[in-house]
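Intended use. Records such as the LacI family transcriptional regulator entry shown here are meant for training and evaluating sequence-to-structure methods. They are not intended to support clinical decisions.
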Amino acid sequence: MKFESVTIKDIAKVLHLSTSTVSRALRDSYEISEETKKLVVEYAKSVNYRPNPSALNLKKRRSRTLGITISEIANSFFSQIIAGVESVAQEKGYNVIISQSFENFEREQEAVRNLSQSVDGMLISLSSETKSLEHIEQLQDRGMPVVFFDRITKSLEGHKVRSNNFKGAFQATAHLIQNGYTRIAFVGNPDNLAIIKERKRGYDEALESHQIPPTEAYIKYCLHGGLSYDEVERVMEELLQLENPPQAILSCADKITTNCYRYLVKHDIRIPDQMALVGFSNLDLTEFLHPSLSIIQQKAVTMGVQAAELLIQQIESKRPVVDFSEIVLEPDFFARASSAPSDPGK
């Protein structure tokens, strides 16, 4: 037997009222007496009446759905951001649709195009391959609210939520220098991403502030952000084959950090005695590795919460939003065994 939910017409028939009176009573309209409102609301509760979300959304021409485009859900940083987004969405009565680019520009374009047909607004973190922003600009031109988070762009207007990437990289690099490491490699996503430019700037300025000349051979970029272990393996081998290989690595992405650590362990390279390692990471288990991993940890859940709040505010604004915010969250630095002063005698 097919389940049929209670409708406004059903309530009106039982209470001998018009459907418009019932509808207005359920919306707490001033046009309806308190006595009638009480009668309607109590009966609606007793029969477990629920408004039809599809009908409401058609009326308002809204789907009450947010779209989010990220590189990969399996990345702990992005999964924590999603948790933050969904906590706000649930509280505000929105659903969330998630799409992954896997660091591929064409997949990002397809994701944005598909999501735009069924969402009220979009949260976007750019892929490593993204250089053209035409697909997002077209969305904004059509009035789609867009909030950029983490991998933001300076080229387009919109609310933005990111970490203080410069500070995180500067602090980690300075920490390595203070612990006696002067040959420090920088490994990151491609530098077309604003976050990598900022992390590189933090790395450069930390070296400069300690009078350490930069070494171009120590700068490495992973096109797909370390998504593949092979990509990081190639970079590690290039670094270790140098005449003066680095003593330490600053890794600038979650997956790169994980795979650098994996490579060192796999090849029996002692951490930190033969190679120190500090990386951006939001993995929960970094302190329980052996040796424990020094990390720059971003406030991912907070980033998701604030990005979602800004997007919903923009969606629900009765006027076009022309003043945009850029929220910068301070990362946390945890110095652990992987970047302790080396002891070559061990």
